[in-house]
Amino acid sequence: MSELRDVVIIGSGPAGLTAAIYAARANLTPLVFEGLQPGGQLTITTEVENFPGFAHPIEGPELMDAMREQAVRVGTEVRINTIESVDLSQRPFTVKADDGSTVLAKTLIICTGASAKWIGIESEVALQNRGVSACATCDGFFFRGKDVLVVGGGDTAMEEAMYLTRMCNSVTVIHRRDTLRASKVMADRALANPKIRFEWNSAVKEIKDVTLGKVTGVVLESTIDGSTKDLACDGVFVAIGHQPNTGLFKDQLPMDANGYLVTDGVKTIVDGCFAAGDVWDTHYRQAVTAAGMGCQAAIDAIRFIEANEH
After folding, report:
1. Which of 72, 155, 201, 239 is the most buried (most CB within 10 A)?
2. Exactly one of 111, 138, 233, 273 is catalytic; which is it?
3. Which of 65, 99, 111, 135 is catalytic?
4. Per-residue confidence at 85, pLDDT binned at 50, 70, 90?
5. Of 139, 155, 278, 281, which residue is the catalytic one?
6. 135 counts as catalytic
7. What DSSP string runs through 54-111?
8. Which secondary structure element, helix H or strand E, spans residue 128, and what is its range?
9. Alpha carbon distance 126, 123 (integer Å)
10. Under DSSP, is residue 197 helix (H, G, I), strand (E, B) or coil?
11. Residue 271 and residue 40: Cα distance in Å, rounded?
């Protein structure tokens, strides 16, 4: 037998848990499926200093644990399952979990987020949150007066590099080619910035030093002749893009060329189905903006239920 729920939320990052808090306080007893990464991207972040309400930095996992506890306290049910399929062709929507259970949802809030693309080397994994980051806005503050690298050549990489020049001593962009992929406006701004230098035709082969537990430099490999050289730095920001977690909704909801959901604010083209956070936000990608979108999605879901029940 399938159970019927007023609000089902897929994803348990800031967007999903905020949506749950609002829906629970409206006595809708929302059901949250945590997914493969409970707590979202903040669980791989150390100190969070830009989330309102905390006078002192809070660890990312600690923040998400507190948010989860708050959601449960006000009436949210949280399940650890991942979702294998979703059918949006008719309401209530059909949501199938990896344990074989099926839930029918009067409304669905998609908060599956996006995952940062990484270089794919062992030292990168070992030094994440120890000098390796995928978010300059989140972590740039901790590198004041230091020398950092940005890996990438697109608009995101140029935005990250220019942002980092505000607090870092120097920023070096590592790019596999000899020209940037970024738009001309973004490329021109970065090339004209005196605090940004470029290492062309280069790829990061290794990040040092795993034995010290912090970033001290990188080994660069030429994409032309394979030669290598060492480059000292205090931090590495990987800016080669994000992969939205939208596979469940292929051929059901419109997406852009990169797989992000195309929405009207938090509303999808399917009545009763909403989306919040990095699953469609390609511009801000912050915990606080994701939380705000989760609030909006929940309020819209509440109003949708009220309108249809009357």
Report:
1. 239
2. 138
3. 135
4. very high
5. 139
6. yes
7. -SS-EEHHHHHHHHHHHHHHTT-EEE-PPEEEEE-SSSSEEEEETTS-EEEEEEEEE-
8. none
9. 5
10. strand
11. 26
Task: Give the C-alpha separation, 107 to 300, whole Å.
Answer: 10
Q: Please tell me the predicted confidence (pLDDT) of residue 2.
A: 80
Q: Is 198 helix (H, G, I), strand (E, B) or coil?
A: strand
As given in the structure block, the two tokens for residue 211 are 């034995």
Reduced to 3 states (helix: H, G, I; strand: E, B; else coil), residue 223 is coil
| CA–CA distance, 161 with 188 (Å, rounded to integer) | 13
Mind listing the pLDDT tens digit for each residue in 197-210?
Answer: 999 999 999 999 99
Cis peptide before 251 (omega within 30 of 0): no
User: What confidence tier does 37 reach under pLDDT thresholds 50, 70, 90?
Assistant: confident
Long-range interactions of 177-185: CB distance < 8 A, separation 24+: 177/153, 177/201, 177/223, 179/153, 180/153, 180/154, 181/153, 181/154, 182/153, 182/154, 182/155, 182/157, 182/158, 183/155
Can you say whether residue 285 is alpha, beta or left, with left for phi > 0 and alpha for psi between -120 and 50 degrees?
A: left
Residue-wise pLDDT for 116-164, tens only, equals 889 999 999 999 989 999 888 888 999 999 999 999 999 889 989 999 9
Q: Is 273 a catalytic residue?
A: no
- Contact criterion met (CB below 8 Å) for 236 and 210: no
The pLDDT of residue 233 is above 90: yes
Is 295 part of the annotated catalytic residue set? no
